[in-house]
Structures are given as structure tokens and as C-alpha cells.
Amino acid sequence: MISLRRAWPVRWDRVRVADPVFAPRRQVLRERGIGYQWDVLNDRVAGVPRSHAVANFRIAAGEMQGSFYGMVFQDSDLYKWLEAAAYLLATEPAPQLAEWVATAVDLVVRAQQPDGYLDTYFQVAEPGQRWTNLRDQHELYCAGHLIEAAVAHHLATGRPELLTVARRLADHIARRFGPGPDQRRGYPGHPEIELALVRLYRVTGERSYLDLARYFVDERGRRPLYFDVEAHERGEAPGHRHFDDSYYQVHAPFRQQRTIEGHAVRALYLLSGALDVAMETDDPELLQVCRRLLDNAVERRMYVTGGVGSSAWGERFTIDYDLPNDRAYTETCAAIALVFAMHRLLQVEPDRRYGDVMERALYNGVLGGLSLDGTHFFYVNPLEVWPEVASARHDTRHVLVQRQGWFDCACCPPNLARLLASIGQYVYATDEASLYVHLYVAGEAEAEVGGVPVHLTQATRYPWEGTVDLTLRPASPARWTLALRIPGWAREARLAVNGEPVDPAAVLDRGYARLTRVWHHGDRVRLELLMPVERIQAHPRVRADAGRVAVQRGPIVYCLEEVDNGPNLAALMLPRDGRLRPEWRPDLLGGVVVITAEGRRRREGPSNELYRPVADGDDAEAVTLTFVPYATWANRQPGEMLVWVGEA
Amino acid sequence: MISLRRAWPVRWDRVRVADPVFAPRRQVLRERGIGYQWDVLNDRVAGVPRSHAVANFRIAAGEMQGSFYGMVFQDSDLYKWLEAAAYLLATEPAPQLAEWVATAVDLVVRAQQPDGYLDTYFQVAEPGQRWTNLRDQHELYCAGHLIEAAVAHHLATGRPELLTVARRLADHIARRFGPGPDQRRGYPGHPEIELALVRLYRVTGERSYLDLARYFVDERGRRPLYFDVEAHERGEAPGHRHFDDSYYQVHAPFRQQRTIEGHAVRALYLLSGALDVAMETDDPELLQVCRRLLDNAVERRMYVTGGVGSSAWGERFTIDYDLPNDRAYTETCAAIALVFAMHRLLQVEPDRRYGDVMERALYNGVLGGLSLDGTHFFYVNPLEVWPEVASARHDTRHVLVQRQGWFDCACCPPNLARLLASIGQYVYATDEASLYVHLYVAGEAEAEVGGVPVHLTQATRYPWEGTVDLTLRPASPARWTLALRIPGWAREARLAVNGEPVDPAAVLDRGYARLTRVWHHGDRVRLELLMPVERIQAHPRVRADAGRVAVQRGPIVYCLEEVDNGPNLAALMLPRDGRLRPEWRPDLLGGVVVITAEGRRRREGPSNELYRPVADGDDAEAVTLTFVPYATWANRQPGEMLVWVGEA
After folding, report:
1. Residue A310: how many CA atoms within 13 Å on its side-chain side?
2. Who among B298, B302, B322 is closest to A393 (CB)?
3. Could you tell me where the DSSP H helices lie in B380-431?
């Protein structure tokens, strides 16, 4: 049997990023953001919502008096922070961070109960009620994040303490839940533990973790519904539930689901875990289910920024092509989860379509969640903001116009941290005879292809310029394939090996240009991706974008901001034939390419009339439009923002 | 002192309507709708939400066992039905209707308590709690509707019973509330009684009713806020309140309010009552306040259909230019309330601007609430409906795609009934020396100008054609002014008296063409309003309508329906230069003028790609667009609907 897995990511600690976008963000995280988050978790930051995450562990460990405070899944904030910190520790020395991590790990160790159980909410606030409400109470979700942190910590430091905690909890869970006669047929209300268990399996080789992950995927949605069984046992009245089955992805057994539904982060964490299970258990049917649901997400339910989840209510997917821009929920964590899922599809099947989506989400929907100063965050990422109405209307009250220092529900900040800290792992992958370049990110990497170590450097100003120079330094000459993603946005690409042109079309396989040859130390590959500014249109069924275009250059989606273009951005129009000029602005927003265009602004007439006949002649004036990268909006004065601009 | 009132409406029972729009609707109401509503109120209609309104009165009268059922203001459904029935009785004999009315009146009489109090909710469900929560409990609102019904019943039948009930309740209220030392400084949470008390004053001459109305207007919003005082007395925790002050129009003392705020029906009933008070008390300051708030409504917060209230949450106004089409609330009752307010402004100051808005609301936002069969109703009237998303999204769950037989909160059906039954009163007005024609509605009227009776006929196919032939038959020749509204939508108008052309511009005063002469029996006036199909644009600050136009002909606003144009109406475009052709279709929707246009439909490409670069060349195909009057949508198969169509 051939494993479904094809291309294994080159690990985060083997890749150094030195590009103009991710590297500065990661640098700010290392120098400032990770410490800021640690301070918040320790309640040492004034003026932000209280975290109490560390205090909850102290109370659970019996070292402090007090009550549990926060969301039922508050523990996961500390776990995700630990995971991020571990990734940072793996690449460069950071003594103070190492001390914080040791402090946190020791605390988690002490908080675990003798039977392996660990969840400070139940230990402190509801002892005796553990495992009675998997639907709502997030114990398995928190366990998943503990496991992920433990795996990262172990790989980064080689130390066993946190991994031991995670294994004891995983064993506790594996005893309790499963298909056996003495087991409960439960599964998590919020998926996450599935992918974590596969990570644990990969590190430990312990098959029971993989089996449990697979069980969680396959039990999901079976009738009778476990959530109803446990609700009945709790004495909960039928119909008490706030959300319908699809919110939890239990509207049908997982393998029978046809469309991606419900809470976007849950759906995408579930799919990531299911893909991991499919790979490790060689299950093409399960892979096919995941592909079907993810195709649905990407072809019909994703914003141009890579954001997903178009409804604030339920933080969820709705129906095909329902993508309103002003009411988009597009949680930062959901864009991150889309990256996770696409990264796994790339492992099974290197296809540029998955890399394109991963890249789209990373540069736009994900990075937009983080301020340039590294300490302010968006939870919600709409594509159109009119500040006055965002606060005046109840149906846009989830839209904030400025990034916040923290949240009562603070899932996004440490999720951003762990993604950025591990960004290197998304760049390359290898299989027995290939090295894949998924992303163009300046820096270097240590990989191994067919047993031969390869050092590789990328020199490029990507995403601001499209030329990428790769230098390969295999430890010994060997024949293998260098596979370069030719992004879907690139209408034209040029390729040369050691100065000799190669026709990319001739070597293209599912969007990857495959250069197969004996590679020698010092071989050079140049890829030139032509990067004109493009007007992007949405599928005609996306009602919200009818008559509008988005501006994109390379992988970067642009937006208009009030600070550059004045108020009432909806009155601006981009003529079909006007030139769009890119310009590198080192002084702006940490250095970005801005786009300027000759546009038009609808004139306000002298009358106050709200409705009047369309007048003959010109009712618009010429203006210069200035577009900035969507991910950098709201780093200057607050104001309106618009991605999809009207065509004139 | 000169009274502010200038033009007194010619009463509903002096006007016969025989036009192609209102007359058939009124006929259906008389023959079917009014009986249908009586059956619903008596719980004799299966398959619709239970009313129990009549039963509540029976229980309150001690003639039936049972509990109160329904909204706290369920009584008002019966009162509004009674008011509508009275108008119908006044114009043509209707023995069965007269019997129902007598039954209802007798029941109301028997339900009143000895001290004059009458509100079946408190009598049956919360005896002892009366007048403890004016903010939420609608006692004064119900009293207002009783008073309106009583005045209409008295004027229609000459009978005293219901008027006596109303006076006893009004006296009861006047003893309890007011500025006196022994009085409570209360006022209604939901305005309505203010305008009702002025009607009662006009019929009875009893000044205390006018004083009470004026008190209610002026006390509103004063500090300390009465709603807080009574809440404190009830022991209610501060902050318990669901809505903010502006929802109730108590964010400032009424005369200091600058913009129209809060619940749209409340705001407009309040303004109607305040205008009545201003007229009767000769209070130009109060008039100015009302004008300011109504200008704000009409110039910045009104849909092109005359609908108002752009937010479902709070059924309310939001901020200037916030007029989303898919999430519009635009309650039918709010459009009716806008008609009430504009009708009162016309009484103070005949100005076509007010008549234009009244006409816009009547033909579009109001009539759209009622099915052609007279027994199905919209509560919410959006300008863009995508049925699948309306049910899938939480923020559009208020949008129904088909009219309903009744509602749990059934304010709209009997409100439509009383408006249609009294439609005649909106057509004409008179002052000492003028006869105003506000609306062009075929039929006849009996008026009196300067003491001289005048019989007048309108012969016209308006609103489908713009030619209006008026014939005047004064009882004796006399010099006075015939003032004809020249609608704002009419770019060109022609006028002739007895065949002699008159230049309308030469006699125009605030949009009314004033023909002053000695009028003789049989004098004929012809008004020709050119009625081309117009593309209407919204003010550039209306973000939701940017790049879109509405199609209007005369006062009729049009829409696209899926049944005529296929699905995905957002993909349709109306080219700037294409012809718009009106066509009379006697077979369609009870007889309407439809508009056809050469339009374009964005093509769906062969790929599934959600986002792609704008292609060179044509990506749209030619299609014929068919527009039908907005008010007639959803009378055939359910489907999408769109008022604002993209410009190509």
C-alpha cells in the first residue's frame, strides 16, 4: 500500500525566513509580541481585558486562592502561547523566553491531576462535572492545544516534561472515549484534538493516539448523536441548544458530509485533523471527503483575502456565494485554520491550487489580524468598514475598526503567534525524490532529499517583486526534482537553471514546474514571475461583489483606506481602462508597494435630495486612488476601508 | 394669532376613489379583507398565528374563562380593525360589517372597568400592575388606538357608545398623568395617543385632551427620565433595559432633538401627534422641531420606496445614509406612519416635497405590504431579497420572502386596512380660498371652499398615465384657487383650463400650480404630467446604492423579480444608454405597467474559480430585463427581488 502522504514539510527549525513581510513580523513577535502576550496571560498589562490564564493554573495547582476566570477554554491561550514560544526557542537563543517557558511548563505539570486529567475550568469551577458536556465545554479542545504545545516544546527543547503531561492526559482520554464497551462514544464539540493526536502519534509512535484521532473523526455525526445523549443525561431540555447540528459539524456522519458547514474554525480544524488521519492511515475515501469539503470552501465560501466564515452568528459558513463584505466575520483564527488545511492538502498532493489558497490566506486574511507593532489584534476581518455604521448597527456590532490589545475570548493573538513563529514550515517540503518550494520567502533552509542533505537559499524581494533566485547546495550531486509552485495569479513566468532558460509550461505538473536533474553544489535557479497589478472579479454569483473589482498584485490583495482617499469610499470608482501603478514606499507601513490609479469620485450635488434622476453628462470628478495592502490597514488613523471598489 | 393650519383634508367619506390602484385594493378589503381580519381576530382562521384579540376582551368583560394571550398590545389589533371598518361603513352600506362592528363595540363597552380603565392585558393577566411600566407595556398606545377607532366610529355612524368609552378612558388618563402635583409625569413608551387625543379634541372640543397631548410631547425626554423613575419604583435593576434612550425618542427633551432616532413607527407617530399639537396650539417652534426631524428622515434616512427604519434590531432608524437594501426593516407600519406625518405637514404647509414623499410611500412602501388577494401581509419590506440567504443568515432572519396570513405581532394588517379604508382623505384639502389636489386618484369628491360646496371629478389612469382631467362643479360661481401638486418626478407638466393652456411655471408656489379665478359649474382643468421611465440614483453617501440605479416611472418604483428575469439578479446590469419601454399589461398582477429594457447579464465562466482577473472583451450577454412595480412583487412564485440594479 502506498502512503497517501507525498511531501513532508521541512520543519520550522530548519528554515530561516528573511523576507520583507514575514521576517519583520516574526522579529516583532520575538522582540516584543511574545513577551507582551506572556504579560497579558499573567495579568500584568493594564487597559486590556483580563486574562487570568496563568492564575487559573496556579489555583488548579493549589498554589493560589481564587476563582476560575475567563472562557471555559482559557487554558488554551497559555498552551498556544507555549507552542509559539517553543518554535521561537528552536531557532535562536532567547534566555528570558526560555525562563518564561520553563515557568509555564512547571506550572502546567503541577496543575495536572493524579489521574492525568487537566482542565483548570473543571478543576476549579466545576469539580465533578468533567466530561459531562463535550458539546460546549471545550475540554478536548484544550487537551488538543496542550498536546500541540507539548509536541512543539519537546521538538524544540528535547525536554520530556510537557510531553509527559500531554501523554498522561491523552491516555486518560483514550481510556474514557472510544468504541469499546466500557467507553463513552464522545467526541469534541470543538475539533482540534484530532490533529494534535496525530502530531503526538508522529512524535511518540504510539498507535493508540492515531486510533483515537480516527475514532473522533468517524464517530462525529453518527446517530444517536452523542451531544443529545449527554444532554439527556445532564437533564437538559431538548431544544435548549443554541446552535443547530451543522454548527458543530454533526449534521451527518463526517464521511457523508457534502459541504463545509458551521463554525469555520471548528470545520477547518476538523478537516486538518481528518487529513492527517487520512494520510497516516492511508485512507483515500477520507481524503476524498476532505477534498470535497475544502473545494466547497475555496470555490464558493472564501473571501478574496482568504478569510472564511461570512456570518458573525455562529462564526460560521452560511451558503455558497454568500460573502457580504461589511458583515464578514472572517475570524483571524479561521484564516489560520484554512492555512492548516491547505498545508495538509499540499502534503498529500502538491498542487498549486492549495498553495495559492495558503498563500492568499497568509499574506492577507491572517496577517491582517495583527498590527505592525505586534501587540494589537483583529478578531474579525471584514472587507468593507464604515466606522460610524459599524457601531450604530446591531448586525455589524462584531466589527471593530481598530485592533485591540486583547480580548475576553483571546483565541486569535496566541494563534497568530504560533503561526508566525512556525512560518518556516510552510515554505518547503520534500518527498523521496523532490524538493517542493511552496512559498517564495527569502532566507535559507536545510532539507534532505532522498537521503542527501541539501542547503538552499532564496534571494528575493517577494512579494513586492517577482524574481526569485534559488541556490542549491546538495551535500553530494544527486538526481532529484526541484518543484516550484507557479502561482495561479502569475500569467507569465520565466525560469532558468544556471542561466539556461527552461520553459515552465513544458515541465508543469499541477501548477508546479518540476526541474529534474542531477543537482550540484552551487546550482542556481531563477524564477521570474511577472507581477502586474490585476483587477480581480468575483464569480457572478457573489452578489456582494457585483459591479466591483478588487486590486491584487502578486499574492497581495489591496484596499482603499480613508486616510489616503478621504471619506465615503463607496463613491470612488475605478475605470476599466485606467492604469494601475505600483510604487515601492519604504517609508510607509513598514515598507510596502502601494498602487495608485486614476479614479473617479461621484460628486455630491448641491441639493440635499436623497434620490434624483441620473443626470446627463459627468457626475463624477477625477481623483487619484491609493491602494495599500489589505493586511496593513488600520495601522494609521481609524477610518473607512474598502476592498471591492466599484467599476466605472 | 394666525393658526398654523392651512389646509384641512377633505374627509374620507366625502371622496370616492375609482383609480386603477387604490380602488381595487380597497374593493378587495371591503369584500374580503375586512371579513378575513374579523375572522382572524375571532380565531376562526386555521393555519395562521392565533390572535385571541376578541377573546381577550370577552375574558376581560367576565363573559368567558381563560387567560390573556398575545402581545401586550393585542387590543390595538381590534381597535385598528374597528377604525378601518368604520371608514368602510361611512361610504357604502354593508349590513354584515355593521353587525360585526356593533358586536365589537358592545364588547369593548362591556370590557371597560368602572373607573374608565381599559386594557385587557392588565385586566386579565396583571391586575394591580396597571400604569407601572409605561416604557414597555403599551397601555397608552392601546388607549390611543381605542380613541382613533372611537372617533372614526362616531363620525361614520353618529353613534356615541365607543366615543363614550374613549372619553372615559381619556379622562382616566388625564387625571393620572400630567404636570400637576397629584399627577404622575409619565408619557407613553410607544407614542400614538398624542395624535389620537388631538382627534378626540377636534371631535369633542374638550380642551383637556389637547392639553394632555401637548403635555405628552413636551414631557418626553425630560430629566429625570420618567422611564427610569418608574423602573426604580418597580425595583428593576439599572441597565436592565433592552434598548437605549433613543429607541424611545427620550434621548433629549423632544424640542431639543436634532435627528430622527429610534423605533421608526414610534418616532413617526410621535411626530404626527406633535404636528397636530403644533397646529392646534399655534406653536411654530414645535412645528420647526417636527420639520427638522422629518427633513432628516426624508433627506437622509428613507428608502426610495418610502420605507423607513433600516435596522431590524429595534425596528429603527440608524444613522444618515445607512440604507442597506437586503437588511432593510422598513416595517409596513413605518411607511404608513410616514404617510401620516407627511399628510400633517401638508396641512400646515402645502409643499410638493411633502406630497411627493406621501405619494412615494403610499404607492410603494405601503402597498407592498399587502398581497393582491388582500389577505397576506409583509411586516418587513426589504429592497433586495435572495431567499436562500434570507433564511440562512441570522442577520436577515427578519426577511420573509412570502407574505403571511397573520403575525404574532399583527400591527401591520389592520393598519393597512385603516389606511386603505380612509385613502380618500389623502387626496384633497381645502382652506378658506383654495382646493388642493395632493394626489391624482380617479373618482370624485365633495368639498367646500370659502363656504361654497364644490363637486369635483378626476378622470385619469394615473399612476399608469399622466393625464388628469378635473371637472369642477361649484354650487355657485366663486373666486378661489385650485392648487395642483406638480410632482417632483415630473420634469415636464402641461396645464389647460377649459382648453386654454396655462404655463404651470408661472403659477407655481412650492410645487403647487395655483389656478386662481372665478370657477363655474363645469369648468375643466387638464393636467398632463410627462411620465418617462427614469433611472434614479441615490445620494453618493448611500453606500448600498453606489453604482446602482432604481427604475421609476411617475410615482411607481420598480423592481426585478426572479420569475421574470431568472435567478441571480445581482448579475444583471442596466446599460446607461439602453431604452426603457413601458408597456400596459392588463393581464399581469391586476393590471400594471411593466418596464422592459435591454440589459446585460454577467456570464458565468466555465471555471469554478471564485476570483479571477477581469478578462478583456465581453463577459456579459444581452438579456431583456423586465421590471414590475415594487408594490406588486411576491404575488407570483417566490424568488429573488431587486430594486437597485447595477449600471453597466
Report:
1. 25
2. B322
3. 387-392, 412-421
Name chain A contacts of B393, Cβ cutoff 8 Å: 311, 313, 318, 322
Q: Can you give the pLDDT at residue A1?
A: 45
B566-577 pLDDT per residue, tens: 999 999 999 998
Q: Helix (H, G, I), strand (E, B), or coil: what is residue B571?
A: helix
Annotated active-site residue in A142, A290, A411, A559: A411
Contact A540 B386 (CB under 8 A): no
Is a pLDDT exceeding 70 seen at residue B618?
no
Positive/negative CA dihedral, B508, B509, B513, B518: negative
Name the residue with cell 459627468: A618
Query: What CA–CA distance (Å, rounded) separates B278 from B287?
Result: 6
- Among the listed residues A155, A226, A153, the one whose alpha carbon sits nearest the alpha carbon of residue A185: A226
The per-residue pLDDT for A606 is: 78
Q: Provide the pLDDT confidence category of residue A617 given band limits of 50, 70 and 90.
A: low
Give A 556-585 residues with CB within 8 A of chain B. Answer: 568, 570-571, 573, 576
Q: What share of chain A is helix, strand, coil (3-state, %, to 5)?
A: 40, 20, 40
Instruction: Report pLDDT for A334.
Output: 98
Percent of chain B surpassing pLDDT 90:
95
Half-sphere exposure of B75 (CA within 13 A, CB side): 32
Alpha helices of A349-463 — where are they, by DSSP H?
352-360, 387-392, 412-421
Please indicate if any CB of chain B lies within 8 Å of the CB of A506: no
Compute the average pLDDT of residues B351-357: 98
Beta strands in A590-634 (DSSP E): 592-602, 611-613, 620-629
B411 is catalytic: yes
Between positions 292 and 321 of A, the ones with CB within 8 A of B are 298-300, 302, 304, 311-314, 318-319
Q: Which long-range contacts (CB under 8 A, 24 or more apart) does A88-97 make?
A: A88/A29, A88/A30, A88/A34, A88/A421, A89/A156, A89/A157, A90/A12, A90/A13, A90/A155, A90/A156, A90/A157, A91/A12, A91/A13, A91/A16, A91/A424, A92/A30, A94/A30, A96/A35, A97/A34, A97/A35
- The C-alpha atoms of residue B380 and residue B404 are separated, in whole angstroms, by 11
The packing angle between helices A207-219 and A161-176, to 10°, is: 50
Answer whether B535 touches A (CB < 8 Å).
yes
Active site residue B448: no
pLDDT tens digits for range A303-362: 999 999 999 999 999 999 999 999 999 999 999 999 999 999 999 999 999 999 999 999
Q: What is the pLDDT of residue A4?
A: 79
Check if the beta carbon of residue B371 is closer than 8 Å to that of residue B28: no
Closest CA to B551 of B533, B569, B570: B533
- HEC readout, B176-245: HECCCCCCECCCCCCCCHHHHHHHHHHHHCCHHHHHHHHHHHHHCCCCCCHHHHHHHHCCCCCCCCCCCH
CA quadruple A160, A162, A168, A172: dihedral, nearest 10: -160
DSSP state letters, A308-367: B--BTTTTB--STT---SSS----HHHHHHHHHHHHHHHHH---HHHHHHHHHIIIIIIG
Interface test with B, best of A611, A619, A621 (most B CBs within 10 A): A611
**How many cross-chain Cβ pairs, A to B, lie less than 8 Å apart?**
150
CA dist., res. A441 & res. A426, Å (int): 10
In the predicted structure, residue B64 carries a pLDDT above the cut 80: yes
- Please give the biggest Cα pair distance in chain A: 81
Cα A359 from Cα A441, distance rounded (Å): 11
Do β-strands A620-629 and A556-561 pair in parallel, antiparallel, or remain unpaired?
antiparallel
- B contacts of A610 (beta carbons < 8 Å): 298-300, 302, 304, 538-539, 542
> Quick check: helix, strand or coil at residue B619?
coil
